[in-house]
Amino acid sequence: GWKGTTHDEL
Amino acid sequence: MNIFRLLGDLSHLLAIIILLLKIWRTRSCAGVSGKSQILFALVFTTRYLDLFTNFISMYNSAMKLIYLVCSYATVFLMYFKFKATYDSNHDTFRMEFLVVPVGGLAFLVNHDFTPLEILWTFSIYLEAVAILPQLFMISKTGEAETITSHYLFALGSYRALYIVNWVFRFYTEGFFDLIAIVAGCVQTILYCDFFYLYITKVLKGKQLTLPA
């Protein structure tokens, strides 16, 4: 699955 | 969320709406770089792939959708509906000169070597330079319509406000994302000479002309 850190900015 | 980021997002939304309305109402995309608009659509596409997998807030999801729809609508208007008014002779910046190096850099410098994160990093780096075809086109034509200069001012202001947001977040929550910050500074610096011309000319009611 695609992990990646979550980015909360647009 | 803080006031700087909210103002930044609204400035970004304003820029996108200004351009879309300019093209739609004048039925012309004269003076607008279609290549920059393609790059912006690519930026949003690669950045918002997590739209359905990673819910942040209604605001976040709504804005992502609006940006995606508006950017593709703008590209559609420019390359299909009002294609006859597209000034391809002056919109000659080679997009591959931006996409290839940015793509390579995204592989080398990122927070996490996963597909989603590399694509997010690619979108951050690409956004920093996506306006270059537009600025290049204005330097070639030597002028810009007033409405286009308002679009550029709002677009340039958005990332400048984001820089203030990052400073604010650093001091209030200790958050900082170096990749976004460095790319955001590069992006804002590219607008500096335009900001100077906008403030010294457009705000005085003059036409935005570049010294030939």
Describe this structure in words.
The complex is a heterodimer of chains A (10) and B (212). With 10 residues, chain A is mostly loops. In chain A, 0% of the residues lie in helices and 0% in strands. Chain A contains no helices and no strands. The N and C termini of chain A lie far apart (22 Å). The model of chain A has no long low-confidence stretch (mean pLDDT 68). The model of chain B has no long low-confidence stretch (mean pLDDT 96). In chain B, strands 1-2 form a two-stranded antiparallel sheet. Chain B is 71% helix and 2% strand. At the A-B interface, loops of A face helix 1, helix 3 and helix 5 of B. Chain B: This is ER lumen protein-retaining receptor. Chain B: Belongs to the ERD2 family. Chain B: InterPro entries: ER_ret_rcpt.
Offer a quick outline of the entry:
The complex is a heterodimer of chains A (10) and B (212). By secondary structure, chain A is low in regular secondary structure. Chain B is mostly helical.
Summarize the helices and strands and which ones pair or pack.
The complex is a heterodimer of chains A (10) and B (212).
Chain A: no helix or strand
Chain B: H1 3-26, H2 34-47, H3 58-81, H4 96-108, H5 115-129, H6 132-141, E1 143-144, H7 146-173, H8 178-190, H9 192-200, E2 208-209
Antiparallel strand pairs in B: 1-2
Mind summarizing the main beta sheet of chain B? 2 strands, antiparallel
- Residue runs with pLDDT of under 50 for 5 or more positions of chain B: none
Helix content of chain A: under 10%
Q: Using DSSP, what is the number of strands of chain B? A: 2
Structural class of chain A: little secondary structure
Radius of gyration of chain B: 17 Å
> What's the total helix number of chain B?
9
Distance between the termini of chain B: 43 Å
Shape of chain B: globular
Cα(first) to Cα(last) distance of chain A is: 22 Å
SSE order of chain B, as H and E? HHHHHHEHHHE
Q: Helix- and strand-based class of chain B?
A: mainly alpha
Spans of chain A with pLDDT under 50 lasting ≥5 residues?
none
Helix content of chain B: over 70%
What integer is the average pLDDT of chain B? 96
Major sheet: arrangement of strands of chain B: 1-2
Compute the number of helices of chain A. Answer: 0
How is the biggest beta sheet of chain A arranged? none
Radius of gyration of chain A: 8 Å
Gross morphology of chain A is elongated
Number of strands of chain A: 0
